[in-house]
Design a protein that fits this description.
Residues 284-371 form the Endonuclease GajA/Old nuclease/RecF-like AAA domain. The protein has 435 residues and is of the alpha/beta class. The protein has 13 helices and 13 strands.
């Protein structure tokens, strides 16, 4: 199994972070130290690597759709009104003919569509209404003086599609860093982020995956799942991509069979919440997540306590095949909505998911119960050597940036920061309001 190292520096609250991702990684530190920032950017980077082909396909599709926009509008005006496809756009036609992600098929089907348009356009221009023909030429930006022929116009369209196709093939072959950054930035803009870090890197077995001009695909890390709050499961119509992706994964399966080891973990989750989460039909026949309690209660997951939602995403992601040795689960402050007893049970599930499934996990936490439980249970389960704790410390006394200190499996320094809160409680409890 490959080991990973993740670095990010001089970005927002983070002065320097050099994080090992070999099993269970725990980031501790006060509010505003950049824990969530580290999680989010690792999520973007890993999924950027692994979805590069998908991004490239969508980029080509968009360029082809732009080329077909005007021809499509003209075609629907000039074809025979009895044509069964008169109201089917070229974009829709391609969707029905091409399997999503098949770049080769998309290219050739696009050329077929353009060939059909050329034939229909030439036929109409040889026999159609003169006034309408001039209107078409003006719309297509073809000079009325004949300086550019219909064939010239159609040739240019085919050349544009071919050039876009060749460029995408080059991207898939060369993996240019600039294109990866461009695709990730488009994704970020949808999430409301406009200032990416200048220094970020992911290493696989000490090999940097981001070079100056090109990038390499991670061999053993195929997916990152980021959960910043379980309330994402109650946010219908969210504009945040990582929330939408989480909802889709909870609704849809990878189609793989559930191994016996996973069944045992699922049974543990269901015992914890005294029920199970399933996909049911809603009022409008849409699929929605429901919580079925052991006593017969059946309510939507959105209506459950937030703590139930925390266990719900573990159940559904494991059940649907998304939690495995090729995945990284990133969770921000999972303890935030959990009773102390559930914090310990949740920590145990995380440790068992790593031990039995091989799942890599990075948790951002500032809860002593969560940190202590992960360490104790990891030691008991024999995976403490795969567990690494980090403490965010101010870069200097008056600095607002933090350096992440590698503590190995020792959590004593983390608890020193927790003890500050206890001292303040004692101080504030023994002084007057004005002191």
């Amino acid at each position: 199994m490959s080991n990973y190292r993740y670095t990010l520096s001089d970005y927002h609250a983070i002065k320097e972070a050099d994080i090992a991702i070999n099993g269970i990684t725990v980031l501790a530190g006060e509010n505003g130290c950049g824990k969530s920032t580290l999680s989010r950017w690792l999520y973007y980077l890993i999924n950027g690597f692994n979805r590069f082909d998908e991004f490239a396909y969508n980029d080509l599709l968009k360029q082809i759709q732009d080329c077909l926009r005007k021809p499509d509008r003209v075609r629907r005006d000039i074809v025979n009104r009895g044509d069964e496809n008169i109201n089917v756009t070229y974009s829709r036609l391609l969707e029905t003919r091409v399997v999503y992600g098949d770049i080769e098929s998309l290219f050739h089907e696009s050329l077929d569509v353009l060939a059909s348009f050329r034939k229909e356009l030439v036929s109409y221009m040889n026999s159609g209404d003169e006034g309408n023909k001039n209107r078409i030429l003006t719309y297509l930006a073809i000079p009325l003086d004949g300086g550019i022929t219909l064939d010239d116009y159609c040739d240019d369209l085919e050349n544009d599609v071919t050039a876009a196709y060749v460029n995408v093939l080059d991207d898939l072959k060369m993996h240019p860093v600039g294109r990866l950054q461009g695709y990730i930035y488009e994704y970020l803009i949808e999430e409301g982020i406009f200032d990416p870090p200048a220094s970020i890197q992911l290493y696989e077995d000490q090999i940097p995956l981001l070079a100056e001009r090109c990038f390499s695909m991670p061999y053993m890390l195929h997916r990152a799942i980021y959960i910043d709050t379980p309330m994402a499961l109650a946010a219908e119509g969210s504009e945040l991509n990582h929330w939408k992706e989480l909802a889709n994964m909870m609704l849809s399966s990878t189609g793989t069979n559930i191994p016996e080891r996973n069944r045992l973990l699922l049974a543990r989750i269901m015992r914890s919440i005294n029920g199970k989460i399933s996909v049911d039909k809603g009022w409008f026949k849409n699929e929605e997540l429901h919580y079925h309690r052991a006593d017969g209660l059946d309510i939507t997951l959105a209506s459950t306590a937030t703590g139930i939602k925390s266990f719900a995403y573990l159940q559904r992601l494991l059940e649907n095949g998304y939690l495995n040795e090729e995945s990284l689960l990133l969770i921000d402050e999972p303890e935030a909505h959990l009773h102390p007893q559930w914090i310990v049970e949740f920590a145990r599930l995380l440790v068992l998911l790593h031990k039995q499934v091989g799942l890599k996990i990075m948790v951002a936490s500032h809860n002593p119960d969560m940190v202590s439980a992960i360490q104790s249970i990891a030691r008991k389960e024999g995976v403490l050597q795969n567990t690494c704790f980090y403490q965010a410390e101010r870069a200097s006394e008056d600095s607002m940036q933090y350096v992440y200190k590698n503590l190995g499996s020792d959590i004593s320094e983390i608890f020193k920061s927790f003890n500050i809160a206890i001292s303040r409680i004692q101080d504030y409890g023994s002084t007057g309001l004005s002191e």
